[in-house]
């Protein structure tokens, strides 16, 4: 309740009407300064960009002259290191698996994006090596892939060829499992709580806009969604991450996604968007088989706040940073400014902020990749002076768009209402919220009993990627993750969950904790849980011990009492007696 009250005061201070109405004319606009990263060894387009083993990585694609390249590069120690690949995977599929390895499949067969291919290989970030091991059941390019909870992988989508759903068994074999109602290019894949997968797209394999959007299912019959007949999903013809827009909670069995859509008809029938022009962007919340428009406090800006014309939102799909509880939709204008709409998706209606840069003439505006720190990396790609891409002259440039909460490269220049009183009210509102959040943070932060904290918040890092030989740095990242997100409160927390958030693998996490703390991952997590129990019992002395240890992530009374004594050296009764005041 207080969160919403302060947000309401803030909205009033900066000139945003009441949140309850969901109607505002515009959203806050903030200028940010991107950071130039080292250039790639070779220019690339049609490549995959991902983070594996704590390193930013690009793989395959084509270079100058629209010629495919069977090479990859990873960023380490301030430079890109080149590696040989088995295949080119130009506009192929790349999927980072839970194991930490990366599955790469398909892509154009020849130069200039002609044909499709069968080739499949696996990338091992620990050895920096690629190994070809099999082939798809059907040659394809511009497909989408998703790993299921079972460890199997679903692949579907194609370009100028037939489409079918196929399954990778996680070891070696690819098998067709189901036909599709209509072929699609880089379709959306959405997991459901019933173990199903929804397949959605607005364009067929020849890039024609579909008249009717049909949703295929891995385990059920296809169906149509009336909302998607007016609001078409945004498709970008480049390799992308199928789970990028995931905002659910697998531990709780909630599977939810955000999808960018564009209105190709009238908006007069939608009250919150009445009067907006045709072609207005919006956001759809997909939860199991339900598709609904996500309410926002203002429409997605379609025109640049600088008066330079429209913003074209075709820079990839929505990317969700679940740590920051923000999602991002990216675009560009004719002057080559980069735009990011930040969506606070946990609020209803969701607040929006539009970030923008100065013109970036050397930027390729390729599909951005979300880093573990919550920033966006734009690596390679190609763009002429207008919005169109040019496959024949890609760029080698790489940029970091600073959106992460720990990044201090950002310079912000907000474009609030011009009158001084409004600005003063806005500043006062921000300060009020800041003080309140600071006080609340002091009350809730958990510090493990044996940890010696330091001033790592002030440490500047030139490149924000975790490396496998930086145990001290990796441990500090783990501390920050536990302190800020309190992952230990998830009773089913596994080391793989922490490794996934940090974009590394489980072995690095367990080895780091053992090396720096001399304990197992389970012991490390239990220290946090015990510390949390102690803290909330001090703050809320009337709370029952059962409620406290349940909140902290313990699943049974017996294990809690045993672990509490192991960590503190005393029983809960002894500790409570010492701390009764």
How is the topology of this model organized?
Blueprint: H1 2-13, E1 29-31, E2 35-37, E3 48-52, E4 55-59, E5 62-63, E6 67-68, E7 71-76, E8 79-84, E9 93-96, E10 102-105, E11 117-124, E12 129-140, E13 144-147, E14 153-156, E15 165-168, E16 174-178, E17 188-191, E18 197-200, E19 214-217, E20 223-224, H2 227-230, E21 231-233, E22 256-263, E23 281-287, E24 290-293, E25 319-321, E26 326-332, E27 338-343, E28 352-356, E29 369-370, E30 376-379, E31 398-401, E32 413-414, H3 420-444, H4 471-485, H5 495-501, H6 506-517, H7 521-539, H8 545-552, H9 557-568, H10 572-578
Parallel strand pairs: 1-28
Antiparallel strand pairs: 1-32, 2-31, 3-4, 4-7, 5-6, 7-8, 9-10, 10-11, 11-12, 13-14, 14-15, 15-16, 17-18, 18-19, 19-20, 21-22, 22-23, 23-24, 25-26, 26-27, 27-28, 29-30, 30-31
